[in-house]
Design goal:
467 residues, Serine Threonine Protein Phosphatase 5, Tetratricopeptide repeat, mainly alpha
Amino acid sequence: MTGEIILAYKNYTSMKVAKGNSYTKKVSQKDPSNALIFVLQNYRDFVELVFNEDAAKYKVRKGLKSKRLSYLDKADKKSPYYLFSKGVIHLQWSIIELKYGDYLSGALDFRKSYALFKENVNKYPKFKYNKIFYGAQMAIAGTIPDGYKLIAKTLGLRGNIKSGMRMLESTVDLNKSMFQNDAILYSVYLKQYIENKPKDALALIDKWKLDTKNNHLFTFMAANLNLNNFKAGKSIQIIQSRNKSKEFMPMPILDYELGLSKLGLLEYDGAIYSLNRYVNSKVLFYKKDACQKIAIAYYLKGNTAKANAYKAKIRTAGNTETDLDKQALRFSKSGSFGNKNLLKARMLFDGGEFSRAQKILNQIDTISLSTDVEKLEFIYRKGRVLEGLKQRTAAIKAYKETLAQSNPTNEYYHARAALQAAGLYEEMGQVSKALIFYKKVLSLKGHEFKNSLDHRAKTAILRLGGK
């Protein structure tokens, strides 16, 4: 493992793509037969296509996967790097393909990479890098629901969340350089989304003293996790404190995260500026959601004309691959923006401003809520705010009240209320009650976030040993 290879890897996974390319070129000039050259080149495509979201570039580059794998066929098959390198390429392309909607190709590449890492673990049990990727995949495969276990077994996917996480976390060694950014990234995200331990995930960022200023991968990860865990102020601080050198690859997703964070604090002008930068970029994902959030910002500012203009723009912006974009498209076809105070409370809740949100909710006269949907959201939002304020018993009561309301238009509030109630029961150690509510999530049909909420419920059921 040469110094240039390590430097190329570290630069790619810090989002310094041009610098990574320069080190990769040096490696290819000194040792053109080195199989890791193709892995490094794949890292370039991985970070650019996943974090820059350029559909045109994806179409051009997707043919490089098979070429690199063909080159690797000529490498030393007795080296532990042979199967490992193929596994990394298949895994990275599975993530890329899933992001761009090539679901069958993504699933097949995931299976191929899993099989390659598994074979390499058996052949070279002491080869430490295997465990990073194989452990992560084992944890992910462990979330496959019982109904699909036979298919998974046939495909060779036998996962185990606990074993996979233990294997992955054992690989984190901050004194090492190669593939450590992968180990860190997978450990943190799987801690959040597979083990459902958001506090522990955020704690790892502090524990490992990750450089969120000079590594934009860590900038994104830390900002994203803080925003998703209702810490908009911290997310803003992380994004604005990053090194803004031109050495780093442009990442429009940071504008999106910054805009959402500012809207969560009701900083309308800052939100509009950052979200507009995102809408004007080449990306396709979350553009409808960004236009919706700009429309909401203008509406809450009192500029109805611009609010309606951006509401209309939702229909032509981006695509509808994500649940958020599907929800935004549905919003664009609705008649009005709804109750202003209820909307403010929703934005403040998303930003983690629970006391401010509760104060606004307490000012709402339920008579002023003009539709059944607004009345449903009001009860649901009270529950979310109470949960944010650590009032678990009161929050569960509000979630149960939400579930008792009619829902003729199949809003997501019922499913999300059931998921939140389940999570609270799980926190309280009441597993049987948690399982009842997780299963309730799966029973609810037709809402716009069904895929994502069902996946979270299924993962939780498996985690708790349910069926």
